[in-house]
Amino acid sequence: MSALDFTQTSTARRVDDDERTRILAEPGFGRYYTDFMVHARWTLEDGWGGAEIVPFGPVQLSPAAAVLHYGQEIFEGLKAFRHADGSVWTFRPERNAERMQRSARRLALPELPAGDFLSSLMAITAADEPWVPEATSEESLYLRPFMFASEEFLGVRASHCVDYYVIASPAGPYFPRGVQPLVVWISDEYARAGAGGTGAAKCGGNYASSLLAKREAAENGADEVMFLDSETHSSIDELSGMNVFAVTADGRLLTPSLTGSILEGVTRESILRLAADRGLEVIEQQLVMSEVLGQIDRGEITEMFAAGTAAVINPIGELRARGGSWTVGDGGSGEVTLALRTELTDIQYGRIPDRHGWLTRL
Ligand code: COI
């Protein structure tokens, strides 16, 4: 059921046309923000209300706001894509709405009805329409819905006041080097999430806990970090903000099964479907790190890639660890990886038919 009606308080733009054109020419990832943001508030007494579209700008919070102390926060990530006819679309938003509800349950936050989630995306995209990059590029407008505990209270319990926002940021490639094979560091010390924890929820804490390992990866010349399961440190979980896949020489696509500590990526789910459609045998199972390294050494695994909304599909050229390094295939961008990437983005940008009905017009 949809109840919120997002009303715009001002139409004055924050960024002038020339500046916006300059930004859209090379947006990078997460560096620039649009003119507006969407806001709604939930209180224990009244539920959801106060839906508005306001100028993008600082959020005022009490220093005693619960989120600043106990991290009660969740978020989502989607993209708005412009098609050749000028229309603007997003990809499987109902899956993000459902995941945000699952994350909310795990973090004891209120669930935002799926209809309100979708209308918040429509509201920000309508207000910030000039920020959706042209169809000629491989760029998009990244939408970041999030909610957090805003009650001024230091007792440890679920907040009685929660703020929901959607901000938007024009996005090019997630990795600064573009879509180039990644070097991935295998973390032997840190885990991202444990059994019974919040690993399957999209909450800030999971990303905060990945940062030290990510810094260690960078110190070892790697672009990303791969986390192993927290209990045995033997099987692959995921990267710091992406799911991970391997392609075998005999036509299988492998990815870790959803154990409860892995994020249920919308891109992950879509790739599994596209891969099955093109005849790959799709296998979700526990991926034992030592076995994967052996399969790389023997040439049985020929490609690996990282996948997520922000990263799309990005080849992995090398795995690196304290004990050595393993070149995946020829270290370049694999054929299956690139074919899946092309097909996924062709659907998203409306260049081929949306045969699974994954697109929603904004
Ligand atoms: C996304 O892919 O949308 C994420 O939230 C991951 C983050 C690394 C940007």
From TrEMBL:
Gene Ontology molecular function: any one: L-valine-2-oxoglutarate transaminase activity
One protein family per Pfam: Aminotran_4
A GO biological-process term: L-valine biosynthetic process
Keywords from the named record: Amino-acid biosynthesis, Aminotransferase, Branched-chain amino acid biosynthesis, Pyridoxal phosphate, Transferase
Cofactor(s) the record lists: pyridoxal 5'-phosphate
Residue numbers of N6-(pyridoxal phosphate)lysine PTMs: K202
Keyword Transport set for record: no
Pathway, per record: Amino-acid biosynthesis; L-valine biosynthesis; L-valine from pyruvate: step 4/4; Amino-acid biosynthesis; L-leucine biosynthesis; L-leucine from 3-methyl-2-oxobutanoate: step 4/4; Amino-acid biosynthesis; L-isoleucine biosynthesis; L-isoleucine from 2-oxobutanoate: step 4/4
UniProt EC number: 2.6.1.42
Superkingdom of the source species: Bacteria
Reaction(s) the record says it catalyses: L-valine + 2-oxoglutarate = 3-methyl-2-oxobutanoate + L-glutamate; L-isoleucine + 2-oxoglutarate = (S)-3-methyl-2-oxopentanoate + L-glutamate; L-leucine + 2-oxoglutarate = 4-methyl-2-oxopentanoate + L-glutamate
NCBIfam families attached to this UniProt entry: ilvE_II (TIGR01123), PRK13357.1 (NF009897)
Family named by the database record: Belongs to the class-IV pyridoxal-phosphate-dependent aminotransferase family.
Name this protein carries in UniProt: Branched-chain-amino-acid aminotransferase
Species assigned in the record: Brachybacterium vulturis
Species lineage: Bacteria, Bacillati, Actinomycetota, Actinomycetes, Micrococcales
